[in-house]
Amino acid sequence: MISFELNGDKVTYEGDPNMPLLWYVRDELNLTGSKFGCGVGMCGACTMHLNGQPVRSCSTPMAAANGARVTTIEGLNSEAAVAIQQAWQKLDVVQCGYCQSGQVMSATALLENNKQPNDQDIDMAMQGNICRCATYHRIRAAIHEASDTLAKEVS
């Protein structure tokens, strides 16, 4: 049996420990904010946090979640997450929207670990999050906007 915390709630899973985390969360728990994109961990649409770190849930086996804290886009509520979500709306980042939950998850993890990232930090943290609409310049601007918001809250 695999037990873990998902968005603050304890859950258990008794199936195949090699099944991707994404399938369990989407298909069995009906939390569909994390998207299936490529299925091999290359596009980032399925990004979730595992113990605070962004992971590609389409290639993360259920066994990796045992005893862990997993956060999906539905459970994201930290100060950094709120700042990111507000910046995304303010700067109208979304075009088609398919990749955005993964983008937001990666951007939030970045700001939770580095509240004042430069462009290189952003590029490194966001690498592997593919946006087929190419809104990368708006994504970077929104991360800077969220960073500025967090800096204002501290001062």
Structural notes for this entry:
This protein is α+β, with helices and mostly antiparallel strands. The protein has two domains: 74 residues, Ubiquitin-like (UB roll) (Roll); 76 residues, DNA polymerase, domain 1, CATH 1.10.150. 39% of the residues lie in helices and 14% in strands. The chain is built from five helices and five strands. The protein has a five-stranded mixed sheet with strand order 2-1-5-3-4, covered by helices on one side. Helix 2 packs across helix 3, helix 2 crosses helix 5 and helix 3 packs across helix 4. The longest helix has 19 residues. The N and C termini lie far apart (46 Å).
Ordered list of secondary-structure elements with their pairings:
Layout: E1 2-6, E2 9-13, H1 21-28, E3 47-50, E4 53-56, E5 69-71, H2 79-90, H3 100-113, H4 119-126, H5 136-154
Parallel strand pairs: 1-5
Antiparallel strand pairs: 1-2, 3-4, 3-5
Helix pairs in contact: 2-3, 2-5, 3-4
